[in-house]
Amino acid sequence: MSLLTIESTRSGFVESVHRVSVAVTDMEGKLVASAGEPGLVTFWRSSAKPFQALPLVMDGAADRWSFGTRELALACASHSSEPGHRELAEAMLRACGCEEGQLACGPHPPLNPAVAEEVARGGVKLTPKWSNCSGKHTGMLALARHHGWPTEGYSRLDHPVQERILQEVCRWTGVARGELRLGVDGCTAVCFGLPLAAMATAYARLGTSQEPAARRLREALWAHPALVAGTGRLCTELMTACRGTVLAKVGAEGVYSAALPTLGLGVTLKVEDGDGRCSPPALLAVLRQVLARAGQPLPVEGLTHHVEPVLRNTRGEVIGSLRAAGELRFH
Amino acid sequence: MSLLTIESTRSGFVESVHRVSVAVTDMEGKLVASAGEPGLVTFWRSSAKPFQALPLVMDGAADRWSFGTRELALACASHSSEPGHRELAEAMLRACGCEEGQLACGPHPPLNPAVAEEVARGGVKLTPKWSNCSGKHTGMLALARHHGWPTEGYSRLDHPVQERILQEVCRWTGVARGELRLGVDGCTAVCFGLPLAAMATAYARLGTSQEPAARRLREALWAHPALVAGTGRLCTELMTACRGTVLAKVGAEGVYSAALPTLGLGVTLKVEDGDGRCSPPALLAVLRQVLARAGQPLPVEGLTHHVEPVLRNTRGEVIGSLRAAGELRFH
After folding, report:
1. Residues of chain A scoring pLDDT < 70
2. Which of A230, A248, B220, B316 could be stapled to A258 by a disulfide with Cβ–Cβ 3.0 to 4.6 Å?
3. Would you say A31 and A112 are in contact if contact means Cβ atoms under 8 Å apart?
4. Residues of B in contact with A18 (CB under 8 A)
5. DSSP 8-state class, residue B224
6. What is the interface pTM, i.e. ipTM, of the complex?
């Protein structure tokens, strides 16, 4: 077993260690590289969002409500609650004849620190559109409206929206419905527990599939990386720097999935303890190693703050960093 | 090697896993029980505070400035920035002829959620007395003033205050000066890297020592647990429930140290990834196992929210918990 870790340093010494499990697979699900336990079963969290958005395109709801690349990017997003994200969510709700009160996602401190500070100062009431998942939830409402299903309870397991999404999750991951662990996500929607390697396989397929819906989602993510996450975040900066060669989507609790379409590979990693500060440096370490082996260096010039994020003390002094250690095992 | 973990669950499944290393030793440093790597070298962080406060008592500074049990409790504290904590820090500064501007600790969001919310709403400027370490820093200034040392730079390694503290850290832990890793803590003070087992030994000694300074610190911590941490926090609630039988002091990055004077034992644990949400349930799991073996059950009735803290989603629904799994190995 190969060991990949993110080390948290202080004054030049390692203070804490985060273990990372990684699966890199091809489109057939063959394990190409790994670290830790590539078969680890955990929840996919927001890295599943592109697959939760697929029925929207496949079933004709996106065309019905005139959702273009911007709207599809937001449907796949864990956005930072920036004004553009909130306005687009509202516009999507209007387009499919819904309103914000129908969103089942709860509010949380925004992922953009400046927006979070503004909110903390008061005077702003956090409503569901502020949720980083409001695009996904709006997409679910749009799917329900398109099919004439009730909008009530759309985020719960017994609703046809979730049944439809489950079909796609099973089809792309190759995991049978009975093998999936089903849970409740941070936003109340259904979330999916399955092996990292199966998540990676779904991304390998998403990155290369010639199905029109997959092509449209890829185009949407690469056309509007700023809508998929937000200012300063890795999904946004990586897909801006690597348009056409890297698709990447973060999830909560230390999950990150990516596709490398030019290599026909998919990647999913899990920081075993769930620390979301560590999944960006872990993803970059994995992508660098996989791409380097293929002779395709990752352009990381603009991403160094994600490669080794600095840690500061209460006086603002740099006291250490989060840095990747260890190598993938190539099979 | 015995494995102790804190599992983070979602919808009944384990989503993330935190490994915990534990050392339980007697006063001679003999390893009595362990999990993971009891020899793991990491920074002691705020669990070292009682030893940083010892010179204050030993050298006569506490008597000189009329610091009683309340002031000594705050000197050992990682407090929650509640009004009583801040006022006491200010009173201590005045007593030793210092002022707040001389404190080297930086501010941070208060550990009491209600106080933090009040601060976030604005109108309050965070100043050094708000730091959870302001009692420790005031104690360091009081020591400098007592000895006639300059107050400037008191938190840095080349200052006599830190040299004096280092003597005590070495004496109680049994680790030679040259073997200590020295770092910069979150509050700018010197922090100490050493094996968990040596930290545990220092606590075993602190809990049982007949030296007057150790006795006075124990009395202070047990007399005023609310000053050592704050409302709802484990150090406060545990020392309230177990006055005289458990001394406990949390540190940042998943460290927790405790003394069990009636058994002559000391405990230190480190959540290897540094997650501070996991060190309270980990400490309670360790104390329960150690005390149960001695036929002394830990009174945990009022502490169940620390034994297995619940996790909620953005709608406030309980989606899982943090729970301890695994057993200590007794040697």
Report:
1. none
2. A248
3. no
4. 273
5. -
6. 0.95
